[in-house]
Amino acid sequence: MRPLQGIHRSKRLTRTVKRDTIITQHINTLTNRKDTTMKKNKVKEVVIMVLALGAFLLLFGRIGYHDTHYTMTGTIKAVHGSEVTVEAEDGHRWGFYGTGYTINDNVELTMWNGGTDLEKNDDEVENVKKIS
Fold first, then answer.
1. What is the pLDDT of residues 37-63, one digit of tens each?
2. Among candidates 54, 73, 66, which has minimal Cα distance to 125?
């Protein structure tokens, strides 16, 4: 009888090993799913942080732009080759290089104040647009 019990035990042991193997595989599958989910969540967090940082920098940059830029209108008073002189409505004269302008054209100047709000003589013309 002992040999039969040994065989019987062997079958029971085989079933136990198979069951343990299946349980281990299931645990590994769940762990891999959890790792994948964690990786996806981490990627989402990084994307959200990058977008938030980008929005902050864009907003901060625009605020600084409006603090240092302004527009004014004026009339072209002289054209010498590509050198153009504009007289603004406030009487200041500004020069820039450009083509396609004629005397008495009305233009809008986008100006940069160089970070000095009170001193107008150091401002620079950044962009010129013809006004019809």
1. 767 778 888 888 888 888 877 766 555
2. 73
Q: What is the C-alpha to C-alpha distance for residues 89 and 111, in angstroms, rounded to an integer?
A: 14
Q: pTM value?
A: 0.49
Tell me the torsion sign for CA atoms 109, 93, 126, 102: positive
The first and second tokens of residue 30, run together, are 């769940």
The phi-psi region of residue 29 (left if phi > 0; otherwise alpha if psi is between -120 and 50; otherwise beta) is alpha
SS3 17: helix
What's the distance, CA 57 to chain centroid?
7
CB contact at 8 A, 112 and 98:
no
Q: Looking at the predicted structure, is the pLDDT value of residue 66 above 70?
A: no
Which tens digit of pLDDT belongs to each residue from 89-116? 989 999 999 999 999 999 999 998 877 7
